[in-house]
Amino acid sequence: MSKRSMMALCATTAAIVGLANPRPVQAQADQPAASAGNGMEEIVVTARRKEERIQTIPLAVTAFTQNDLDKKRILQVSDLARNVPSVAISQSESDQNAPYSSQIRLRGLPGSVVYFADVPLGNVDYNAATGITHGTGTGFYFDLDNLEVLKGPQGTLFGKNSIGGLISIEPKKPTNEFEGYIEGKFGNYNDKEFDGAINVPIVEDKLLVRIAGQGQIRDGYTKDYFSGKEYDNRNDQSWRISVTARPTDDLENTLIYDGYWQDTNGSSGILTYLNSNKVFATAPLGFANVPITLGTGLPLSALTNPATQVATYLSLLKTFEAGGQPSLAFFPTAESYLKLQQSIGVREEAGRSVPGIGKDYFYGFTNSTTWDINDNLTIKNIAAARIFKELASNDDASISLPILNIGDPTNNRGWGDNSVQYTEEFQLQGKSINDKLSWVVGAFLEFDHPLGQTDLTSTAVGNTSYYHFDNVDRSQAVFAHGIYDLSDYVSGLRFTAGYRYTWDYVSVQEHGFNGVDHVTRDPTTGAPSNCAPIGYDNNCAAGSDAHFSSFGWNLALDEQLDPSTLLYVRSGNAYRPGYTNPQVPLQFQSLKPEHVTDVEIGAKVDWDLMGAHFRTNGDIFHTDYKAIQVQQLVEVTDSQGNSHAASLETNAASAQLEGAEFEGTFIPVQGVEISPHASYLYSHYDQYPAVFGAQGTKPPFFYEPKFQFGVVGTYHLPVDESVGDIAISADYSWYGQQYVTATIGEPYNIQPSYDQLDLNVNWTNVFTYPVDAGFFMTNALNTTHVQGALPIYTALGITSLVYNEPRMFGFSLKYRFKAAESEEAAPAAYTPPPVTPVAPASVARSYMVFFDFNKSDLTPDAVSIVDQAAKNAGPAKTTELTVTGHTDTVGSDAYNLRLSRRRAESVAARLEKDGIPSSEIAIVAKGKHDLLVPTKDGVREPQNRRVTIVYDGGPNS
To answer: Which 3 state secondary structure label does DSSP give 304?
Structure first.
C-alpha cells in the first residue's frame, strides 16, 4: 500500500472516531461491559470461534437474530444485499432456477464461504465445469440463534479458506426447556408459509431434542404468454432435527439432520436485445459462401429438407445474381418473438422452447462433539456429510426458439448435479499465560465427489449436446490463531495473529463435450454419434488433475479505549485455488490460484448525546487482488470453421479495491430506533484478458455497485403493557448502478441503480398472551427494476434480463408455548450499573449481583451489594441464603454451568468473609437461562449476567 493510501486510511479513521465520540476518552477499567446503561442491545457473536460482544472484536461483522431475519424478510442469501454493507449478489436467469444459486461477493471478492452449524456448504461461487452454484436458499433461514456476515480474508479460525469473507448460520440448539412455537403466514399471490419448532428435554440436562421445519407455497408472478404456466413460483419445505447428548457435565455431543426440498417451474427471463444478423457459420453453396445467421434469411431447415432444398437453393442464387446478400437463418421468426415480448411487458414471457424446472434436494448430517477437559483446554470435533442434488432447465432466450437452453427434462437421465461432501474439522481451544493468551489450533479436511450419474443437456442455436462429468475435489489445511492481552503494558490493548496452510487437489473427468466441438449423442441410448478426436478416447472422455497450495495469515491490533470505544487495525491474506477444465480450448484449461491481501482500519463506538443513544461502527479497507479468475461466454470457432458459444475462464492481472463501510443505531427517544448502513467500493481491473474483447484494458468489476445504503426506522407505539408491544418499521435500501459486462458490442453493459421500500408491523405478546401478529410488505412502492442480466449479445446475439419481485404483502400469526416455570424467585427490576446498595430493610429478600461479560470476579459495585445482603441477613433472621449463578454466553452448556458456579462461589466467598457461615449458604448453578430479559422500560438488558441472593428459611423471610 502506498504511503498516501495509508495516510488516508488513518485520517479517515481518526475522523470517524472524532465524530462518533465527542466526549473525552477516559479509562474505565472497572466498569461493566458496554451496553448496560445506554439502552443498546448487546449482541454476542462467535465470529472468532468464541463468544464475544460484537462491539469488542476487531473485525467488520454484521449479525442478525432470528427476529431480525423475520422482520426484514430475509428468506435467502440474495436478501442480504439490501441489509449488509458491501454485499453483492449477482443473479442471472440460470441462477434463479434455484433460489440457493447466487454468486456472493463480499467487498467485491468472490469465493465467500457459507457455514451452517460450523460446516462449510460446498462451493458457493460458480463452478466453471458444472455450472452449479451451491449456496444458501430458503432452506436454512428459520429457527436460528444468529446469522453473521464476516468480511475480509478468513481461514485461520474456520475450516474452509475464503478470500472475501464468510456467512455463518447458527441453528438453535436444544435446550433444557419444553417449549416451541408455530407460525403461519399468508399473503398475495396465494402465498402460504409455515414454520415451527418444538424443544423437548427427554432426560433433563442429559438428552435434549429440538425439531423444526418450514414450508412455503406461492404462485408465480411471471406467466408464459402461450401456455399460461407460472414462473418464479415457490414450492419448498425444510426440516431440521437436533439431538444433544450430555453424558457428563464436561462432554457434549450434538447431532443435526437437516434437509431442503424444492420443486418449482424455475425463474423467468425477459429477452430484451436480439441481433438477428449474428453470423455463426457459412454454407459453401458453389456460387458463394452463404452466411448462416441467427434470424435473417431463408430458413436453414428448408435447405436441408429434400422437399424444399432445390427451391431454397435457387432462391438464394437469384438473390446473389441480383447483387443482394443471400443468407440462411436458424430461426427466421426470432424478430417476431422479440416484438411480442416488447408488447406484453416484463411480467410475461414470449414462450419457451424447453419447460422450466427448478428441483433441488439437499440434506446432511452434522456431528459436533465438545470435551471441556478443564477451564483452559477444550477439544472440539466437527464432522459432516452433505448431499447436493439439483435438476434445472431453462430457456435463456425466454422465447419459443432453442437459441440457448440448459437442461432438457424430457431427455435428462439423471440429476444435473449429484454430489456428496464430507468434512472433518478438529480443534484444540485453550487459554495460557494466566488467561492472557487464548488460542485455537486445528486441522480441516473436505472431500467432494459425485454420488451418482450427473447429466447435463445443452442446446445452442439448435445444436443439442449431452455430457456428464465426474469431478473430485479435496482440500486439507492446518491453522492456528491466538489473541494476546497486552493490558499489562497498555490498558485495553490486544494483539491477534493467525496462520494457515492449505493443500487443494482437483480431478476433473468430462464426457461428451470438449468445448470446441459439440459431441452429439443419441437421445435414447446416449451413444455418441460424432466424437472430436483431440484428447479424447473412444468414449469421448477427457480428464485432468491439478493441485495447489498456499499459506494465509491474519494480524490485528486493537485497543479498547473504554468499555464503549474500540479502535483496531487488521490485515489478512488468503488464496482461492485454481482449477482445471479439459472441456475448453487448451489455453483455457488451467486456471491459476487467486491471492488477496487486505488492510482494514475501524472503530466501534457506543455513545450518548443529550439523552440520545448512538452506536456507530465504521471501517475503511484496501485490498490487493492478484491473478483474478474471470469468466465469460465468448464465441469460438471449431475445427470445421463453425462458430458457437463457449464459457471460458482465465486469469486477469491484478486489481486494487478500496472502500468504506458504516453501520449505526440511533435511539433519539424511548421507543424510536433508526439504523442506517452504507458502503462505498472503488474497484477496477489493472488489466483484463484481451481474448474477452473488453472495452479498455482496465474495466470496473462486474456486479459491484460503487455505492449502496439503507436505513431502517422503527417506532414502538406508546400503548399499555397489557396490550403488548406494537412496532411499526420501514426499511429503505438503495443499490447503485453496476457493470454487468465490458465486452465491446454489448448493448446492455450497465445495470441501473434501484431502490426498495419494505414495511412491517409487529405486535408481540398480544394482550399479554404468548401470541405475535404481524403484517409485512416488500417492495411497497411496487417498483420494477433489473436485478440480473445475461449479456451474451456478442456471443449468441441475445441478452435477457431478470426482474425483481413485484409488491408482496401478507399477515403472520405466531403462537409460542412453554412449560410452566419451576419455582424460582423472579429477578428484581434491573437498574443499570453503577448500582446503589439496596436499603437495609427486612423486606429486602432478593439481591442481584451483576458481572462483567464472561467474568466471575466481583466488581466494586458487586462487593457493596453482597456486603449489604450480608448485613441485612441478621435483622431478617435468615437461616439460609440461596446463591444462584447465571451466565449469558453462547458457549457450551458445560462451560456456562461452570461459569455460573464460579460466579455463585465468588458471591458465597464474599458472604463468608462478611460473617455468614458456609452452612447457611446454598449454591445453585443455572448456566444459561433467559439470555436477555426485558426491563421495565422495554430495553433488553443482560439480566442473565448475574447472581441472585435470596433469603430463605427464616421466620421473617
So the answer is: helix
Grid cell, residue 315, equals: 432462391
> Is residue 164 scored above 60 in pLDDT?
yes
Task: Please answer whether residues 798 and 353 qualify as being in contact, where contact means their C-beta atoms are separated by less than 8 angstroms.
Answer: no
- For 577-724, list the strands marked E by DSSP: 579-580, 590-591, 594-609, 612-626, 629-637, 643-651, 655-667, 672-685, 707-716
Q: Per residue in 652-675, is it b (16+ CB within 10 Å) or e — as a string?
A: beebbbbbbbbbbbbbeeeeebeb
User: In degrees rounded to 5, what are phi and psi of residue 78?
Assistant: -65, -20
Strand order in the sheet with 946-952: 846-850, 946-952, 880-887, 921-928
pLDDT in tens, 217-260: 999 999 999 999 999 999 999 999 999 999 988 899 999 999 99
In the chain, the amino acid numbered 658 is E
Which amino acid is it at 829? A
Best CA proximity match to 469, nearest among 505, 506, 513, 527: 513
DSSP string of 896-937, one letter each residue: HHHHHHHHHHHHHHHHHHTT--GGGEEEEEEEE-SSSEE-TT
Task: Tell me which CATH code domain 171-273+341-818 carries.
Answer: 2.40.170.20
| Cβ contact 579:164 at 8 Å | no
How far does Cα 903 stand from its chain's mean position?
37
* pLDDT category of residue 525 using cuts at 50, 70 and 90: very low
Q: Which residues pair with 562 in a beta bridge?
A: 565
pLDDT (tens digit per residue) in 779-831: 999 999 998 888 889 888 999 999 999 999 999 999 999 987 544 444 444 44
The pLDDT confidence band at residue 176, using thresholds 50, 70 and 90, is confident
Domain 846-952: give its CATH code.
3.30.1330.60
Q: How far is CA 356 from the centre of its chain?
A: 26
Among 254, 354, 248, 262, which residue's Cα sits nearest to residue 75? 262
Single-letter code of the amino acid located at 388: F
Query: Could you give the 3-state DSSP secondary structure of residue 317?
Result: helix
Q: Which helix (H) or strand (E) holds 497?
A: strand 493-511
Q: What is the residue type of 385?
A: A
Residues 6 or more apart in contact with residue 843 via CB below 8 angstroms: none
State which H helix or E strand residue 444 sits in.
strand 437-450
Sequence spans of domains, the chain: 171-273+341-818, 274-340, 846-952
Nearby residues of 82 by Cβ (< 8 Å), 6 or more positions away = 710, 731, 733, 735, 756
The helix (H) or strand (E) run that includes residue 280 is strand 279-284
Q: Please spell the DSSP secondary structure of 722-756, one letter per residue.
A: TT-EEEEEEEEEEE--EE---BTT-S--EEPPEEE
Element of type H or E holding 319: helix 309-321
Q: What is the predicted pLDDT for the residue at 738? A: 92
